[in-house]
């Protein structure tokens, strides 16, 4: 066997991603248990597209949200610059920096290994020049551990996208239609492509991004017939968000779909659960139980000492500091509650 043939065989069994998969747990090794789902790569997405299987995409902004997306079987995670508003409280996406995006992308990469990991390049870090766009992309991949970057803009960004893809080898996800980073120039957060000329422009933008080498193209806030036509014209998978059901896949913002963002709810978003309300109720209950002395309960939420050691400790603390011993650590909080204060009688 030649040296070249050996290298080919060695690489065949490896993941496309440079992020290694976690080792198999001892519980599943050698037991015949089902192997964990394969790593999602560009090749995986191409096969889904070829087989007409819709691609699921969701945003994630930190380790916990990444773990949830990983466990739910999502195909692609996007660390979107929407985190500027939903996670950091900024007014809009233009305020977030590249370093902040990298910080969150690293956290997501630690929480999810299976989905393909894409990160937004934020406003201002790829607009000045092709060189700036390349440097920002490289930094996002090297430091943020992203597997692809997403760039907003159509024909005007095609040359820079081509340089990132073909000269550097970093996959790029395109984004046309409503582009939040430059929403001001679009007249605000408005649906795009409602006029004939506007729809024609979107088609030209999509074709330019495909020619530039985009792996996926996000179609945001446009009439469904326009998104459907673009999807049919392209050989590149499209991911819709407010673009109707006839795209190659769908993406939603984590905080929107779970009801965890307090400012507004886009028309195109389906809220699958109102986690914000549930979390508020849980926190309110916690605060009341603390105030009423109902939490924590002795023996249920507390740690015990061996009885003999506890007696020795009480004797020591009493003799050394004059502190009167409390009830046993195993005593039910129903019989004694040291946190709850007795009401003060009002003077007549």
UniProtKB/TrEMBL annotation:
GO terms for cellular component: mitochondrion. Pfam families: Pantoate_transf. One of its GO terms (biological process) is pantothenate biosynthetic process. Gene3D superfamilies: Phosphoenolpyruvate-binding domains (3.20.20.60). InterPro entries: Pantoate_hydroxy_MeTrfase, Pyrv/PenolPyrv_kinase-like_dom, Pyrv_kinase-like_dom_sf. One of its GO terms (molecular function) is 3-methyl-2-oxobutanoate hydroxymethyltransferase activity. The keyword Transferase applies. Residues 25-35, 326-335 have a biased composition (Low complexity). Pathway: Cofactor biosynthesis; (R)-pantothenate biosynthesis; (R)-pantoate from 3-methyl-2-oxobutanoate: step 1/2. The keyword Transferase applies. Keywords: Pantothenate biosynthesis, Transferase. Residues 339-348 have a biased composition (Basic and acidic residues). It catalyses: (6R)-5,10-methylene-5,6,7,8-tetrahydrofolate + 3-methyl-2-oxobutanoate + H2O = 2-dehydropantoate + (6S)-5,6,7,8-tetrahydrofolate. Belongs to the PanB family. This is 3-methyl-2-oxobutanoate hydroxymethyltransferase.
């Amino acid at each position: 066997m030649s040296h070249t043939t050996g290298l080919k065989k060695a690489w065949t069994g490896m993941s496309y991603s440079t992020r290694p998969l976690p080792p198999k747990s001892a519980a599943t090794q050698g037991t015949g248990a089902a192997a964990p789902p394969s790593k999602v790569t560009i090749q995986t997405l191409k096969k889904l597209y070829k087989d007409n299987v819709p691609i699921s995409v969701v945003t994630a902004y930190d380790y916990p949200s990444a773990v949830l997306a990983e466990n739910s079987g999502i195909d692609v995670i996007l660390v979107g610059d929407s985190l500027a508003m939903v996670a950091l409280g900024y007014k809009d996406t233009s305020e977030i920096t590249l370093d902040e995006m990298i910080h969150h992308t690293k956290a997501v990469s630690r929480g999810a290994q299976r989905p393909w990991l894409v990160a937004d390049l934020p406003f201002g870090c790829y607009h000045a020049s092709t060189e700036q766009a390349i440097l920002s992309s490289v930094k996002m991949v090297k430091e943020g551990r992203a597997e692809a970057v997403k760039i907003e803009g159509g024909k005007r960004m095609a040359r820079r996208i081509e340089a990132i893809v073909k000269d550097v080898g970093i996959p790029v996800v395109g984004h046309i239609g409503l582009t939040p980073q430059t929403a001001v120039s679009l007249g605000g957060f408005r649906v795009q492509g409602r006029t004939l000329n506007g729809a024609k422009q979107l088609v030209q933008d999509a074709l330019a991004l495909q020619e530039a080498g985009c792996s996926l193209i996000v179609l945001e806030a446009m009439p469904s017939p326009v998104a459907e036509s673009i999807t049919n014209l392209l050989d590149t998978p499209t991911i819709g968000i407010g673009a109707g059901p006839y795209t190659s896949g769908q993406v939603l913002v984590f905080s929107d779909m779970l009801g965890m963002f307090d400012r507004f709810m886009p028309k195109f978003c389906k809220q699958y659960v109102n986690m914000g309300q549930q979390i508020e109720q849980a926190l309110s209950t916690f605060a009341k139980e603390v105030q009423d002395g109902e939490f924590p309960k002795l023996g249920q939420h507390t740690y015990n000492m061996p009885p003999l050691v506890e007696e020795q400790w009480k004797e020591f603390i009493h003799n050394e500091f004059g502190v009167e011993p409390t009830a046993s650590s195993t005593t039910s909080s129903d019989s004694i509650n040291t946190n709850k204060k007795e009401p003060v009688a009002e003077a007549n």
